[in-house]
Amino acid sequence: MAKNKTPKERKFVSVSKASTKADEDSKDVKEKGIREESVPGDTSKTPKSRATGLRITAVVLWLVAIALEILVICLLNGTLYIPGNLTMWVIIGIVLDLICIAIGSLIWKNANRIDPASEKNKIKFFLWNNMGIIAAVLAFLPLVIILIKNKKLNPKTKKIVTTIAAIALIAAVGLSIDYNPVSSEDLAEAKQEAQIQSDGIVYWTRWGHSYHFDPDCRTLQNSSVIFQGTIEEAFDAHRTDPCDFCAGGAEEKLKETGVEETSTD
């Protein structure tokens, strides 16, 4: 007679106090032998205010990057003098420029997931999802053009620095692209679906890219740690893709219940 396999112990981690469904189901959790922990989130700020703070930080970093570009240009044309190897200082400036652009773009993209723009305003939606690219171009393209046109630099130095600046431009643009932008309509629809499917609580793992409505979804069976929270918290955690197994079919339920889709500005 085959022995029943002991189910893998799972730990559910609540990322905020907003997980009311998890609190209501705590008895079920204990009965299943699942451990539950809580990681209180920052509930003192609204998503919009948090996103605004992140965007301000990103803009400051981008401005620092542009300032570094100006300093590098001043080094190249002799306006600014720093003792030592010119090539070394220029490369250091380019690297610091790239770091500021990359960090700023990652912060900006995170802000867009917390408080996305509406697709109804096409211009704002485009700008909000491409600000990192614009900043990257401003922080590197003028420098690359000046390097190409500079006839005073040593040919070897010019070749090295121009190549590094061009690579930095490509890397900055690549890191700034949001390959899966979300809109406020996407967030509102996901929130409505989560409310219908799972009383507003969704689940995700440490390494996965999806959010789940069912804590017992087949794709979660082998995960020892499962995070749970609101759909906004899932988006904040970069989990914007609905699970193909347990997060599908909500559109049909919306139609059956006659609930209209809503959107936020």
Judging from the principal axes of the Cα atoms, what is the shape? Answer: elongated
Number of helical runs?
9
* Widest sheet: strand ordering: 2-1-5-3
The average pLDDT is: 82
Strand content: 5-15%
* N-to-C order of helices and strands: EHHEHHHHHEEEHEH
- CA(first)-CA(last) distance: 60 Å
Radius of gyration: 24 Å
User: Class by helix and strand content?
Assistant: alpha/beta
Largest beta-sheet characterization: 4 strands, mixed
Helix amount? 55-70%
Uncertain runs: 18-34, 249-255, 259-265
Number of domains: 2
**What is the strand tally?**
6
Protein described:
The chain has about 260 residues and is an alpha/beta fold. The protein has 2 domains: about 90 residues, no CATH class; about 130 residues. Helix content is about 55%, strand content about 10%. It has 9 helices and 6 strands; from the N terminus they run E-H-H-E-H-H-H-H-H-E-E-E-H-E-H. A 4-stranded mixed beta sheet has the order 2-1-5-3. A two-stranded parallel sheet has the order 4-6. Helix 3 packs antiparallel against helix 4, helix 4 runs antiparallel to helix 5 and helix 5 packs antiparallel against helix 6.
From the structure above, extract its key features.
9 helices; disordered C terminus; alpha/beta; single chain; 4-stranded mixed beta sheet; 2 domains; 6 strands; two-stranded parallel ribbon; 8% strand; 265 residues
